[in-house]
From TrEMBL:
TM annotation in the entry: none
GO molecular-function term, one example from the UniProt record: 16S rRNA (guanine(966)-N(2))-methyltransferase activity
Protein name: 16S rRNA (Guanine(966)-N(2))-methyltransferase RsmD
Organism of origin: Georgenia ruanii
Keyword Transferase belongs to the record: yes
PROSITE patterns associated with the record: N6_MTASE
EC number(s) per entry: 2.1.1.171
Keyword Methyltransferase: yes
Length: 210
């Protein structure tokens, strides 16, 4: 059973896809959001939840007062579940769900009227390679040409621009067995934490000086 930890929907249960996702544990989410709230980047934030799965991370942010949350999930069934979860929690008016591959979504310019994100949450599934993750981070930072990685097979290689607000915080969650992500020039690592078998890295958007 997966639940929202705190906020307006605290204690409410989330539906979880039967396979293909691994929702962030409540313990990790509680510790992660405690850290993010200490940094002051949740309440009123514009949030991107990439590889959303059940939407647990993004919906936790919405429950804790994020102004707008976009959940990006490639599996159509999981994306539909994200919509149902948002509605059931009473958060649907502040949550958008996009059924698309993360790399494809970021390779295009942000949709018209989309404000840059203050907080980006990435919890990639196990089959996302380190190279694929590096390419996604580069697109997010508008720095695909300098990341030293190729885009995933079949994906466009054009960098999206304008995804991140100044001083945006980017969070990557992976297995503790995974190496630290390859950060592009537009993102500077600032912290890392370990929670059991889970590693979490924090980075901040910085001016890309090339």
């Amino acid at each position: 059973m997966t639940r929202i930890v705190a906020g307006s929907a605290g204690g409410r249960t989330l539906q979880v896809p039967r396979n293909g996702t691994r929702p962030t544990s409540e313990r990790v989410r509680e510790a992660l959001f405690s850290r993010l709230e200490h940094l002051g980047v949740v309440s009123g934030a514009r949030v991107l939840d990439l590889y959303a799965g059940s939407g647990a991370l993004g919906l936790e942010a919405a429950s804790r007062g994020a102004a707008r949350v976009t959940l990006v999930e490639s599996a159509k069934a999981a994306a539909q579940l994200c919509r149902r979860n948002a509605g059931a929690l009473g958060l649907g008016e502040r949550v958008d769900v996009v059924a698309a591959k993360v790399h494809t979504y970021l390779a295009a310019p942000p949709p018209a009227g989309t404000a840059p994100a203050d907080l980006v949450l990435l919890d990639p599934p196990y089959d996302v390679t380190e190279e694929d993750l590096a390419a996604v981070l580069a697109l997010l930072a508008g720095d695909a040409g300098t990341a030293g990685t190729a885009p995933p097979a079949g994906a466009a290689g054009t960098a999206g621009a304008g995804w991140l607000a100044p001083d945006a915080v980017v969070v990557v969650e992976r297995s503790k067995r995974s190496p630290e992500p390859t950060w592009p020039a537009g993102l500077a690592p600032v912290d890392d934490r370990g929670y059991g078998d889970t590693a979490v890295w924090f980075a901040e958007a910085v001016e890309n000086r090339g």
